[in-house]
């Protein structure tokens, strides 16, 4: 069997994917990137069946990347509308898109993402599996594996697999004082399946078979966190920590098998607890790339969760998180529309860019310096073009003929110039 990207890195082989990802970073040398990949501290999600113009590295020494969630559903989401969301992601240089599709059009939508866009494509096979049965709990373990293989055979670069929730943890739920038991959709589905079937999580029990499937296509595994906190009060609770230890063991097994691994993290966390939470997960999981949802710093921001989430994302990035899953204003309320998706992308792009400046990446800082010089020179065209959302900046600026409505002739820059 052809070597996986992780195995190539261990053998100091420079593949097209590794070379492309290296050129997009500020890592001092290819040798350092190869070392980080071989140690499981950096990943380049790249299914061998899918060829792209651009590849991205996620992890140690790399710029912080973001992911956007989209996808068709059986009842509420149109195919064309979700494609427009994908186009928004391409427009704003989102590095990764997670396809959460389920229902009759899921496979067709996933194939279109893989074929027509250049970003990383991830998926959650268990969502798709749920649409194959009237009663999801009637699925057999082989069905879990078959749908997983269908996804990676199509060309998905990484898959979220909730393998860390097992019978030991499920039996403890009733004894723990969590406000929200499970808020992970995939995790809750597997929990229900386990309870109904009085059986072990198929992804946990047949983890070796999961790895064999992933290795065939060199797909990366993102190990989902079923017990991530769904409110700030549940953060740091025992089940979350126990699952992290289980996930770390599964991650080690996957790496030994030649599979690249991403670890998924919280969730809802108090701002002052984000730093140590990220450090804890990083330490337990041997500095594997960490993929965080938010984290959201408060539970009251319905309609503004993209703000709460981007605040938490910046703190998490400064603590060592590598990969940010965006949150939109529609979080907790409804499926996001196009404007929600744009707001979520922009908020998390700002968080990632801010983290990259703080981490000392020169390209990120260069853009800030360029726009500062443009402001000094009152070069409005350049200010607009360098902003993160030029369309909005241009609309706000309007046709003012170089007159700023904020200060007018009292302009601080004019006076100091």
UniProtKB/TrEMBL annotation:
Keyword flag Kinase: no
GO molecular function, one term: metal ion binding
Pfam families xref list: ThiC_Rad_SAM
Cofactors that this protein relies on: [4Fe-4S] cluster
InterPro entries attached to this UniProt entry: ThiC/Bza_core_dom, ThiC/BzaA/B
UniProt-listed Gene3D superfamilies: 6.10.250.620, Radical SAM ThiC family, central domain
Name of the protein: Phosphomethylpyrimidine synthase
Species of provenance: Dictyoglomus thermophilum
């Amino acid at each position: 069997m052809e070597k996986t990207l992780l195995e190539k890195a261990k053998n100091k082989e420079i593949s097209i994917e590794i070379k492309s990802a290296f050129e997009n970073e500020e890592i001092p040398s290819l040798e350092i990137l190869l070392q980080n990949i071989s140690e499981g501290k950096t990943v380049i999600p790249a299914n061998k069946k899918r060829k792209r113009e651009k590849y991205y590295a996620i992890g140690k020494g790399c710029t912080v990347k973001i992911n956007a969630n989209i996808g068709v559903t059986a009842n509420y989401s149109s195919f064309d509308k979700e494609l427009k969301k994908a186009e928004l992601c391409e427009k704003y240089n989102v590095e990764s898109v997670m396809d959460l599709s389920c229902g009759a059009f899921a496979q067709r939508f996933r194939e279109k993402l893989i074929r027509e866009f250049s970003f990383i494509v991830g998926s959650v096979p268990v969502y798709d599996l749920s649409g194959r049965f009237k009663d999801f709990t009637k699925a057999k373990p082989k069905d879990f594996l078959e749908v997983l293989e269908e996804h990676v055979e199509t060309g998905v670069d990484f898959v979220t697999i909730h393998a860390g929730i097992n019978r030991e943890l499920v039996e403890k739920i009733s004894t723990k004082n969590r406000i929200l038991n499970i808020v992970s959709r995939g995790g809750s589905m597997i929990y229900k399946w386990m309870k109904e079937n009085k059986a072990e999580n198929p992804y946990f029990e047949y983890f070796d078979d999961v790895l064999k499937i992933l290795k065939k296509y060199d797909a990366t595994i993102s190990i989902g966190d079923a017990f991530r906190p769904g409110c700030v009060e549940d953060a740091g609770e025992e089940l979350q920590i126990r699952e992290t230890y289980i996930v770390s063991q599964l991650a080690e097994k996957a790496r030994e098998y030649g599979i690249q691994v991403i670890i998924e993290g919280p969730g809802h966390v108090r701002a002052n607890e984000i730093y140590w939470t990220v450090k804890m997960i990083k330490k337990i999981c041997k500095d594997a790339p960490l993929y965080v949802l938010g984290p959201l710093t408060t539970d009251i921001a319905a309609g503004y969760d993209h703000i709460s989430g981007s605040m938490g994302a910046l703190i998490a990035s400064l603590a060592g998180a590598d990969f940010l899953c965006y949150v939109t204003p529609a979080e907790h309320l409804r499926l996001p529309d196009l404007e929600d998706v744009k707001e979520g992308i922009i908020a998390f792009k700002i968080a990632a860019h801010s983290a990259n400046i703080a981490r000392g990446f020169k390209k990120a800082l260069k853009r800030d310096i360029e726009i500062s010089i443009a402001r000094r020179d009152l070069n409005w065209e350049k200010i607009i073009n360098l902003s993160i959302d030029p369309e909005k900046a241009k609309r706000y600026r309007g046709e003012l003929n170089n007159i700023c409505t904020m200060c007018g002739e009292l302009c601080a820059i004019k006076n100091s110039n």
